[in-house]
Amino acid sequence: MKKLVVIFISVFIVSHLAAEDGSRLWLRFQETKKEATDSKLFRSNRKSPTITIALDELNRYWKGPAVDLIADKKAGTIKDGYKISYKGGKISISAARDIGLLYGVYHLLRLQQTGKDATALNVEERPSYERRILNHWDNLDGSIERGYAGRSLWQWSQLPDTLSPRYEAYARANASIGINGTVLNNVNANPQILTPEYLLKVKALADLFRPYGLTVYLSVNFAAPKAIGGLPDADPLNKDVQQWWKNKVKEIYALIPDFGGLLVKANSEGQSGPQDYGRTHADGANMLADALKPYQGIVMWRAFVYSPTKEDRAKQACQEFVPLDGQFRDNVIIQIKNGPIDFQPREPFSPLFGALRHTQEMIEFQITQEYLGHSKQLVYLAPLFEETLQSDTYSDGKGATVAKITDGSLRPARVTAIAGVANTGDEVNWCGHPFAQSNWYAFGRLAWNHNLPSEQIADEWIRMTFTPDERFVRPVKDMMMSSRETCVNYMMPYGLHHIFAFNQHYGPEPWGDIPGGRADWMPWYYHNADTTGVGFDRTATGSNAVAQYFPSLNDVYGDISRCPENLLLWFHHVPWEYKLKNGGSLWDNLCYRYDEGVQQVRSYQKVWDRLETWVDAQRFREVQSRLRIQAKDALIWKDACLLYFQTFSGQPIPYDIERPVNELDELKEQIRIKHNSTL
Ligand code: GCV
Fold first, then answer.
1. Ligand 1 atom 2: residue of nearest CA
2. Contact 364 CB / ligand 1 (< 6 Å)
3. Is the per-residue pLDDT at 4 higher than 50?
């Protein structure tokens, strides 16, 4: 009987909130009921499709005073920036570009939605980066590499004639957070994207996105002249190849006059590139840059390059690119992943930031959670993004943060940009996990203002996506803010990295080995566990990757007693009995950390279950069931890693923490079966 009452209450509690499927993202503005004459409240001195959207948003959702949108080339605003002021009962938004006015409108709506005072405003906003770009790893067959929210949004077979309403919704969502570029296809690029047939489809998307200020870019396959152009090679010094790219770029701009440019993954993970012909990355990038130059297009050339040599993978990007510094055209920008390996739960920043003194650099983050629990785990990534952006490289003395190196403030740059690998797909709620939406949101907000604290971004997002009620906001914010560290704790504490299950990168597989496989894809390459200790020696006695960092940081990283403990096993092979700052041994601390991660996820379950009153039934249950998965997975991570590393440390798991509940052999077997089923 008691049980029945509880069930009844819980159904009753949630039923008063309208069902929500998450499709509206953070844009859950309520329609205002206005008289026809009310539209006069909102005016602009200019007409354009972008301004029509801005006025429409105001008409539909703005509940505050009259708003004037003032397009003014001399508004004094920078690029996409805007000013908002309040005088005589009226709000004015002024901007040099129409898109600035639309951004200003979304600013107002955000204030309204988060319960902030939208009068008494005196705001001036300017973006940290000129180009704020999503990278889609979407394939032409509709699949998404490392995508966990369904299939691609782009319905290539139906384009250009049939236009899904989601295209415009996607552009609007991006505009609402200031994202102004989108690379539509995977960096492992299918050359077909450059055929006339596909370019017409790309044009259809570009036309739809344009009023929202969203510029289209494409990833290209370096071998395209050979693959689809009928040329015998793709050598960047071959005049025919150069001409082929010039013609292709001309063809693109004839269809899409504001096309943004090209993204290239070359000579990496099997992709072709200039080195196939004995040429350099600069030769390859410059050839494309020359073709794009007359149209103000740019080349984003990725520094994610490594090959299975004896050299530490973490060092290879610097080794390849530093000797080329200064050789790139001024419309080339080197796109560098935040860390030297590959979007791990925690990495130091890539030492390439700051090392290129005469070459433009941009950062690439991964919004899709390839290594942080896919769309099954609640991990808010803004603290990770913030940690990297605010890292001091010391390239120009103290204060040379990654943010300052990439935003053009430390060194003049013609092009400034930031990229995030998208986590969107065709699932109703766009991102799979309701909380994964926060990572798309956070990327946009940080791309706009890289000094925004991740806590403020979380606060905004929670209020907009769920409710501004403090009783909900506070606990959810705490959960989000700790969630990245929680994930690090149960996956890879103290700088452990890349000990994931092979290929799918979801669960643990520290024992993973494929005889004859590439060493740099094997977990043992990264953890180096043996009876003496664990971790990658990147000091002078090891790979000496520390030397790629500037003084005085390299001294700190290279000294086991000064190295930040959260990166200890990244830079050092540490004895199991080594005493950490708290006096406990590395082994004991490792055990406590894994256990802490498990307990933290369980505490999130408790937090969430208490919040049922504040959330509609559908999203409540979606998060609830995903937290259950996360709790089970965290335990698997803990048991797998501790039982495996224990075979080397030979020490007991401290008796005051929960005992493992899984057998190592069973875990190995489960992962093996998973592999076989995904082959
Ligand atoms: C698009 C990692 C991922 C690959 C990805 C690659 C890249 O290796 O596992 O799926 O390929 O990074 O960023 O190019």
1. 342
2. no
3. no
Q: How far is the CA of 372 from the centre of ligand 1 (A)?
A: 14
Q: How far is CA 71 from CA 77, 172, 203, in A?
A: 11, 20, 27
Q: With cut-offs at 50, 70 and 90, classify the pLDDT of residue 671.
A: confident
Confirm or reject: Cβ of 137 under 6 Å from ligand 1. yes
* 146 CB near ligand 1 (under 6 Å): yes
pLDDT of residue 191: 98
Q: pLDDT-derived band of residue 672, with 50, 70 and 90 as boundaries?
A: confident
* Greater model confidence, 40 or 497: 497
Q: Average pLDDT over the chain, rounded to whole? A: 95
Confirm or reject: Cβ of 311 under 6 Å from ligand 1.
no
Rounded mean pLDDT, 177-181: 98
Give the pLDDT band (50/70/90) at residue 11: very low
Residues 134-161 have pLDDT tens digits of: 999 999 999 999 999 999 999 999 999 9
Q: What positions carry a catalytic annotation?
A: 269, 342, 370
Helical ranges in 127-195 per DSSP H:
165-176
The verdict on the CB of residue 145 being under 6 Å from ligand 1 is: yes
The pLDDT score that the predictor gives to residue 36 is: 55
CATH of the domain spanning 31-125: 3.30.379.10
Q: What is the mean pLDDT of residues 374-388?
A: 98
Distance between first and last Cα of the chain: 49
CA geometry: angle 30, 32, 33, nearest 5 deg: 140
Nearest CA to ligand 1 atom 14: 187
**Mutational test site, ligand 1, from 136, 146, 220, 364, max ligand atoms within 8 Å of CB:** 146
pLDDT at 589: 98
Instruction: Using the predicted structure, report yes or no on whether residue 236 has a pLDDT greater than 80.
Output: yes
- The full set of domain ranges for the chain reads 31-125, 131-452, 488-536+573-678
What's the CATH architecture for 131-452?
Answer: Alpha-Beta Barrel (3.20)
What is the percentage of the chain residues whose pLDDT exceeds 90? 90
State which fold the 488-536+573-678 domain adopts.
Alpha-d-glucuronidase, C-terminal Domain (3.90.1330)
Picking from 382, 432, 371, the residue whose alpha carbon sits closest to that of residue 25 is 432
Phi/psi at 91 (5° precision): -100, 135
What is the C-alpha to C-alpha distance for residues 235 and 270, in angstroms, rounded to an integer?
Answer: 17
Residue nearest atom 11 of ligand 1, based on CA coordinates: 188
pLDDT-derived band at 674, boundaries 50, 70, 90: confident
β-strand partners of 640:
none
Give nearest CA residue, ligand 1 atom 13.
304
Ligand 1 centroid to residue 119 C-alpha, Å? 46
Residue 448 beta carbon below 6 angstroms from any ligand 1 atom: no
Q: What is the pLDDT of residues 393-411, one digit of tens each?
A: 999 999 999 999 999 999 9
Pairwise CA distance, residues 261 & 180, whole Å:
13
Answer yes or no: is the C-beta of 498 below 6 A from any ligand 1 atom: no
Cα separation values, 467 from 10, 17, 458, 460, 474, Å: 19, 11, 12, 10, 11
φ/ψ region of 115 (left if φ > 0, alpha if ψ in -120 to 50, else beta) reads left
Q: Which of 185, 263, 302, 342 to mutate to test the pocket of ligand 1 (most atoms within 8 A of CB)?
A: 342
* CB contact at 8 A, 270 and 305: no
Contacts of the segment 554-562: beta carbons below 8 A, 24+ positions apart: 557/348
Report the residue among 135, 136, 137 best suited for mutation to probe ligand 1: largest number of ligand atoms under 8 A from its CB: 137
Query: Residue 225 — pLDDT band, cuts 50, 70, 90?
Result: very high
Dist. CA 203–CA 375, nearest whole Å: 31
Same fold, 31-125 and 131-452: no
